[in-house]
Design a protein that fits this description.
Number of helices: 1
Helix content: under 10%
Order of helices and strands: HEEEEE
Radius of gyration: 12 Å
Strand content: 25-35%
Number of strands: 5
Structural class: mainly beta
Shape: globular
Largest sheet: 5 strands, antiparallel
C-alpha cells in the first residue's frame, strides 16, 4: 500500500495526539505504512504507531499500537 503524497505543509502539521511531537513515516512488520512518534510517548523506548486506512492517517489513540524501539548511540 502506497502512502499518499501531501503538500509539505500538510505533512508538517501532523502531530501525535498524546505527546504533541513530530510523527515519522515508517512501515510496520507487514510492510504497511504507519506514522510513528519521533520521541518516546508511552515510557522509555516506547512509541505509538498510527495506521493509514484508505490513504488517510488515523491519529486516534485507541487505534495506535505501542511499540518498543531501540536507539543506537554512536560516539
Amino acid at each position: 500500500m502506497a502512502r499518499p503524497e501531501y503538500d509539505p505543509w500538510v505533512r508538517s502539521i501532523l502531530r501525535c495526539p498524546v505527546g504533541r511531537h513530530e510523527l515519522l513515516d515508517r512501515t510496520d512488520e507487514h510492510g504497511a505504512p504507519v506514522l510513528e512518534c519521533a520521541e518516546d510517548c508511552d515510557g522509555p523506548g516506547r512509541r505509538r504507531r498510527y495506521p493509514w486506512r484508505d490513504g488517510i492517517p488515523v491519529l486516534l489513540v485507541d487505534d495506535a499500537d505501542v511499540v518498543t524501539v531501540t536507539v543506537t548511540v554512536t560516539d
